[in-house]
Every structure is written in structure tokens, then in C-alpha cells.
Amino acid sequence: MRYRDAHHPQWVVAAYALAPPAFQKLLAEELAWLQRLVQPPLVEVGCGAGRILAALGVQGGSVVGLDLVPRYLVAARRLNVPAWWVAGDGLRPPLRRNHWRTVIFGQATLGSLGSEPLRRRMLTSLAELVAPGGRLLVTAYGPQARQARREWYEAQQRAGLLPPFDPARTREGTFAFTNGFVSQELTAHELQAHCPQGLVGAVTELPSGLLAASWRRV
Ligand SMILES: C[S@@+](CC[C@H](N)C(=O)[O-])C[C@H]1O[C@@H](n2cnc3c(N)ncnc32)[C@H](O)[C@@H]1O
């Protein structure tokens, strides 16, 4: 399976199955952090094949996974998790506004949107979904996660899931690939500066270097 097959329902599953130990630790820390904070009704934007929602195992309220790639949702539906799987864009989510106690935008997807204006548009859009008193939970790769990310990308390259790095655009915390995909790191300060209007909260750095923002709608 090659990167051009990334819309195959199993691609996102295969990529996470290859995570080396340091990256597995980062993923486990993210799940543990989310587990402490999530309450239904809950929506995860960018849910992929449902890995996070399946692990969280939230009971007793509505749970929705939204993703841009309908074929990832084919794999998510096979998990048999009590959730609704919805195809759509987080920039224009086909979901009720001011309703959700928890909105998750996890696994550092923010850093792959490509630009700061797009990151801000996405977070503004996601903030509109949050009910008063509810939380927007967002993660991003910080500088301390760089080595673990590199090892994960290299494992995917060896398996043919990702193309080579684009040497002209890969530097420090930015990993760019020859197919145009880019993943950027943020500092804790930069992530906090993205806190949407009307929300308050803080960014914490998990031991693996993943930055985790918990912003509450006031
Ligand atoms: C890094 S993967 C994470 C998948 C899943 N959250 C996990 O951790 O296993 C990012 C996911 O975000 C989705 N995505 C990217 N941009 C999106 C957007 N604008 N709206 C909805 N989903 C989006 C991608 O299709 C992909 O499934």
C-alpha cells in the first residue's frame, strides 16, 4: 500500500500500527489526557478510522466522529463503537452549533492544515460547536516531539506509506513530503495564541512533547 492509496480505508490504520515505541508513548499520553477531560455529547473532528473514539469508550451520550475522507469512516464503522460516523469538513461541519460538551481536534492534525490563517479558521469553526461550559481539546506537536515524529515518518517511508521528505522544505519542526503533505510543529505559546475568542484555558506539554490545549467556552 503506498501513499497514493491513502484514501484506502486501511491506510490510517496501517500508519498507526507502525508507530515506534517513542511515538506510541506520545499517542498513549494523548489518550490518557483526553480520557480525563471528555464528556458527552462529544464530537471528534478528523477522527480518521476511529482510533481515538474507540479507545476513549465514552458511554451514555451522543458521540460523533467527523472526517473529510469518507473511506476512513468505512474502517471506523467496522469497529462497532457506539458512535455516528459523519463525512464532512471541520471548516464547515454539518453539526449542531453551541451543543457539544467536548469537541476534540487531536493527533496534531492542526499542524497539517498548512497555514496559520487556516488553523485559525478551523479553530473558530470548531469553537462554534462547543456548548457554554463545554471544552475544545486540541493537540499539536511541540519541539520535544520532533525525534519521535521523525522515527514514525521514517517507519512509514520504509513501509511505502509515505514518500521521501522534500529536502527543500523540511527543516527543524517542519516535515514536508514530496507529495505536498506538510506537518508543522508549534510552540506552546503559538498554540495558546490560537485560542478562539470566547474560550479560555491553557496549553500543557505532555512528557512526550505533545502540546495539549484545553479551552472552555465561557
Ligand atoms: C493525523 S490523522 C488522525 C486520525 C485520527 N484522529 C487518529 O488519531 O487516529 C488526521 C485526520 O484528520 C482528517 N482531516 C484533515 N483535515 C480535515 C478537515 N478539514 N475536516 C475533517 N477532517 C479532516 C484527515 O482526513 C485524517 O483522517
Round the Cα radius of gyration to an integer and report it. Answer: 16 Å
CATH architecture: 3-Layer(aba) Sandwich
Query: How many strands appear in the DSSP assignment?
Result: 9
Q: What is the number of helical segments per DSSP (H or I, 4+ residues)?
A: 7
Q: Please indicate the count of domains.
A: 1
Structural class: alpha/beta
Q: Strand count, sense and closure of the main sheet? A: 7 strands, mixed
Widest sheet: strand ordering:
3-2-1-4-5-9-8
Shape estimate:
globular
Written as H for each helix and E for each strand, in order along the chain, the element string is HHEHEHEEHEHEEHEE
Question: What is the CATH class?
Answer: Alpha Beta
Name the ligand types.
Answer: S-adenosylmethionine
End-to-end distance: 46 Å
Show unreliable segments: none
The amount of helix comes to 25-40%
Overall average residue pLDDT: 94
Beta-strand fraction estimate: 15-25%
- CATH T-level fold name: Rossmann fold
Lay out the secondary structure.
Layout: H1 11-17, H2 21-37, E1 42-45, H3 51-56, E2 63-67, H4 70-77, E3 84-87, E4 100-105, H5 116-127, E5 130-141, H6 146-158, E6 174-176, E7 182-184, H7 188-193, E8 199-205, E9 210-217
Parallel strand pairs: 1-2, 1-4, 2-3, 4-5
Antiparallel strand pairs: 5-9, 6-7, 8-9
Helix pairs in contact: 2-6
The protein binds S-adenosylmethionine (SAM).
The site of S-adenosylmethionine has 19 residues, from helix 1, helix 3 and strand 2.
